[in-house]
Structure formats: C-alpha cells, structure tokens
Amino acid sequence: MLAAVLLLALPFCNAESASSYAGSTVVDSYPPPGATNTAIDAYFPDPSQVGYAGPTPTGAEPAAIVTAIPFSKVENVFPLSRPNSADGTDITFNVMRHWGNLAPMYSVESFGLPGASPVIPKGCGINAVHLLMRHGARYPTSDSGVSDFASDIHAAASKEGFSVTGDLKFLATWTYKLGAEILTPFGRDSLFSNGVAFRYRYGELLNGFTDLPVFRTTSEDRMVDSALNFAAGFFGLRTYETDYHQEIIIEEGNFNNTLAPYDVCPNVNTEDVGNFGGTQGNKWAEIYLKHARKRLQPMIKGFNLTISRLVDMQEMCAYETVALGYSKFCDLFTEEEWEGYEYYVDLNFWYSEGPGNPTAAAQGLGYVQELVSRLTHTPINVWNSSTNSTLDSSNITFPLNQPIYVDATHDTVISSIATTLNFTSLAANGPLPTDHIPPHRSYIASQIAPFSSQLVAQVLSCPASEEPTHIRFLLNDGVVPLTGIHGCTEDSNGLCALPSFISGMHERIGEINYAHDCFANYTMPNPDNIIDGRYPS
C-alpha cells in the first residue's frame, strides 16, 4: 500500500510551481516606435537613382512542367525544425505531415494514379494553366482554441495549487507568443518560393499574353500578403508591382466572392450543419486522446487536461512551429496520437467542407462556374451562386483570354471546390467513421488543403498544337483522376478530353441546388451518408 502511495506521488516529487506570467501573451513590434525618419531618406537612394546596374539582358522563359524529368518535389520545410513524437521510434515518421490543414504543403505522390507525373505527358503541349492556391502559414484565427488554452493556463498559474512536472515542466515559464490571422515569416517564404517555382514550371505561357495578367485574392490581410509574395516570387521583387494587376475582392458578409463563398451561404455558418465536422471530430478525439490524458494529467496540478485542451496542445505544436520555428508541445504526443490528430482534422473537413457536408458543393459552385467561363471564353450570364456579377461581368476584372490564371483562397474553399469538381477518388472510402481510422483512406486533409496548397488545372493539347484538347488536375503535385466527371474516362495520366470535361461540368453545375443547400431550413441526415457535398434529394 505504501509503495502504491509513493508511486502516485512520484510525478510531483520534482514539481515546479509556475511563474505568475505563465501562459501570458507576449507581443513584439517592429519597427520600433520613432524609427521611421523620412528626413534621412535622401541618404539612401533607390537603384534607379544610383544607376550603374551593369548588363541586364533577359533569357528565355522556362517551361519545366514540359521538360523537367525528374520532377522537383516539395519536401523540405527549411528553416523550421522538424519535430519529434513522444515515442520517436520511427525516424521516417514525419509529425508535420499529420497536422491536417495546418501542415506545410508537400508533394503528394498519388491520388490513385501512381504512374502519372506532374510533368505533362510526352507529346502534349501546355496551352494554359489555372492555379487556385491557399494562403501561406499563418497565426491562429482570433477565436482559436490555442489562445483560449494560453488564457486558461495563465488563469490557473495565477492561483494557488498550480504546478507542473515531467514533460509539462516547461509550462511553468511558457508564454504565448502567437499573433492572430496574419502570415508568419515561413508563410511569406512559402508563397514567394511557390511563385518562383510556378515561373520555372509555366513561365513560357507569359509569351501568350497581349496585356498584363489579372490575378485575384480576397481582402483579408493574409490573403493580400500571400498574393503579393507569390507575385514577387513569380515576377521578381523589383518589378512585380508593375508586371501584373492584383485584384482584391472584399471578403465580408453579404459580399459575393467565389474565393470566400461561406460569407453568402448561411447554412455554412450554423452549428448543426456548418460545424457538423466539429461534432464528428470530437467523437473521435474522445477515443484517440484518452491515453494521452491519462499520461499527461498526473504531470499538472490545478489544471484539468480535458480532451479539447489536449487538441489545443496539438494545434499549439503546429502553430508555434510555423510561427517560431520550434515547439515543445510536439513531442508530448506519440506517433499514434499524431495519426489520431490527423484523422480528427480529416473528419472536420469531410463533414464540414468536404464530400460529407450538404453545403460543400454549393460553396464551390461559383468558382467552378468561373472556371468553365474561362475555359470556354464565354461570359457568365446566370447569377445563382457566390459569383460577383459586378466583377465577373467585366472583361477588365474577369478576363477570359489569359494563358495563366492565379487565384488565392482558403483551405475550406479548396476542399469545397474539390467536392464541386466531383473528385470522387478523394471520397472513395467515405463516409468516414468516427470510432476508428479506416485503412488506406482516400480523404486526407494535409494532402488536400495544407498551408500554401495548390490546385492546378493544366489545359493541354495532345498532340501539341495551338488548340487545347485536354485538361487534367494536380492537387499539391498529385495527379487527380477525373472519372467522377461524366464523360471523362479512365486515363493513366489523368487526362480528360476538354469538351467532355466542360460538358460534365455543365451537368454537375445543373445538379447543385445552391438556393436550397445554402438557405433552406434543414437538419443533417442521420446517418450522414452524403459523399458528393449535396443535400440528399
């Protein structure tokens, strides 16, 4: 009996009482106040004033997506430190790739076409490219659980009886150093690098422009910064501001915007429909985190480690890493628990913004209508979705003759658009269960909508010619089968004849009841067996 008592007391033999500032928020500001002194600007002339630039001849535009074999993949996250798990038994296990939508983008090997390469098929030519990209790594949103976790730690540390030991000892002096909403330095770097890579892959298409390109983004700070960093990488820092037009579409309630469609689809913002993924994810969290709670709770007194707080700690690992370069929260969880977290995010996306939510196809409808309009060079004339009739009716703000289109959006929107496009390979083994992780699952959020995610439509001619004949899609460098689209047949390279794709999209657009799925008063089906993002007819 005495041994049992001693064993229970052991974790707190070396317990550390927390400092009064534990969990408090730390904010730094740069440039320092008063540092801007325009009076001395004349001492630092710009390059045009200095002159002496030396020779500046340009070369030919690259077209690596046609010629680059082997293909250069996105695999590293420099300068971030790669975290370890609590057990760390498998050196090949990559914790970062189990962060769901908080994972840095990496090249996906395959979505069911293992022999397909992002490099266009031999004999084909690239005629146009459409890029839909997510913003780069950011701080948590303003209403995130991680900031609440920090506030709760700070409140507990301010009272008697709070102490930590073992793996949680660092919380005694830990402070919350994260901002909110805006890009982190790594997020800026990722978008700049993506712009550089896109120039290498598709730069030759610039030769087809007769006017400056129009790229689009939304008005949120991180969206604008993502678009500008991408453009600086694509065009070059010195000239990007004059090399293209940046369209910034208002992202706010009651403003139609296909890159932020949730603002005009009320059912997306309801607890029972729009947040159904959270409900489903929480069921799984109670299962996969029960051992973590049993292991970590004895290391902290005066603070209840609920399941939701453990989820916050896993998210803290991801957010601190992409913001600060490293996080002590990462190695608190085992490989199995990180696999559990990844599936927790998958459930959130599947049932809120993916194939399992009845508003998903409606949310992506507007962008797909725009895509078809661009592919057919035909103006939109039906306004029954999130399309903005003012902007999309103008050939200035919505040109239809560009060889390169670049739009910046959010993770949930990319997930919804993939559903609207009927990428059925992603939904192959749905609906997703909430009590276990299915083997060989096809829907993985870190492969669909990570930070800096890229959905690319390659418009091709096969054989190469001036007239496009085919289209195919890459999702984070993985070629996506298009067999879910009526008229698109199986193809080892993911190709679909362009007329068939357009016809299939017209059919898919006609299936989606935007008014009902976004505005009708309904409840989630029970069980939720939806796999195409539409409310059951």
In short:
By secondary structure, the chain is α+β, with helices and mostly antiparallel strands.
Verbal overview:
- The structure is a single chain.
- 33% of the residues lie in helices and 9% in strands.
- The protein has 17 helices and eleven strands.
- The strands form three sheets. Strands 2, 7, 8, 9, 10 and 11 form a six-stranded mixed sheet that branches. The protein has a three-stranded antiparallel sheet with strand order 1-3-6, with no helix packed on it.
Keywords:
537 residues, alpha+beta, six-stranded mixed β-sheet, three-stranded antiparallel β-sheet, 17 helices, 11 strands, 33% helix, disordered N terminus
Give helix % range: 25-40%
The description of the largest β-sheet is: 6 strands, mixed
| Quaternary structure annotation | single chain
User: Could you spell the SSE succession in H and E letters?
Assistant: HEHHEHEHEHHEHHEHHHHEHHEEEEHH
How much strand? Answer: 5-15%
Poorly predicted ranges: 1-12
Q: Enumerate how many helices there are, as a single number.
A: 17
What distance separates the N and C termini? Answer: 64 Å
